[in-house]
Amino acid sequence: MEPHNHSSLSGFVLLGFPSVGHVRGWLFVLLLLAYLFTIGGNTLIFLVVRLDPALHKPMYHFISLLSFLEVWYTATTIPKMLANLLSEEKTISFAGCLLQTYFFHSLGASECYLLTAMAYDRYLAICRPLHYPAIMTSTLCAKMIAGCWTCGFLCPISEVILVSQLPFCNYNEIQHIFCDFPPLLSLACQDTSTNVLVDFGVNAFIILLTFLFIMGSYGRILGAVLKIRTAAGRKKAFSTCASHLLVVLIFFGSIIFMYVRLRKSYSLTLDRTLAVVYSVITPLANPIIYSLRNRELLKAIERTIFRKGGKACPTHH
To answer: What is the pLDDT averaged over residues 25-30?
Structure first.
C-alpha cells in the first residue's frame, strides 16, 4: 500500500460495531437511552449541588464538577457512535478525528486529576478533621479544580502532534468505536515505536500516578477508620467515600488495561469492550452511584424536584 500523509486522505471510516447486524436498531435505542440518562442524571446532580445551600461543601463541589465533566466527556464520542449506527457512511475527517481524540483524552485526564483531588479531600476530612476547614478552603478548592482542568488539557498535546505527522496508508478503516490513539497508530505506514513509547509514558504518568495517589489516600483513610471504636462510627466515616472509591475502581480498572501498555492494541473485541466501559458505562453509573449511596445528595434532589408550592429554586451569589 502506498503511504499518504493526512492532506491526501479525505478522512477515516469508523467501523464501530461491525458485527451487530440485525440488532443495530436495538443497540441504537440502548445507547441513546444510556446517553440521555447520562446527560440527564449528571446535569441534575450538577444543578442540585449549585442550587441547594446544604451542599455548598468541597466534597459536593467536586462531585458537581465531575458530573459537569461527564456531560462533555460523553458528548465527544456517543453522538458520533449513534450517528454511525444509523448511517452507512461512517466517515470522519482527519481533523475531526484528531479533535475527537484530543478532547476525549483531555477530559479523561482531567477526570483522573479530579478523582485524585476528591480522594485528597476525603483524606483530609477523615484523617485530619480538626484541620480540614482551615486547609480545604474555597481558595484551595478553586486552585485544585483549575489545576485539574489545565493539566488535563495540556497532557495529550504531544501525542496529538506526533500522530498528526504520521503518514497513513490507503487502508483508512479504524477498527474501533471512536477515534483514539491505538487504532490510529495501527493505520500508520511507518514505524510507530516512538509514538507507542510516548503514549505509554504520558498515560503511565497520568493514570498510574493518580491511581497510586488515590490508593495511598484510601490506605490512610482505612487505617483511620479502623481506629474508630464504634461500628456505627466506622460505617459513617467510610460511607462518605465509598461512592468515590467505587467510581475510581470502575474507571481506572478499564483505562489502565487500555492505555498503559507497550503495544498498539490487544484483540479488537477487548479494545471495544473496554472502550464501552470507560466511555459509556462509567459516566452512566456515576449519577446512580452518587445519588443512591449518598443520602444527603438524594434528599437534596428530592427537595429540588418536589419543592413545596412549586417555588423556584433560589440562586446564590
So the answer is: 90
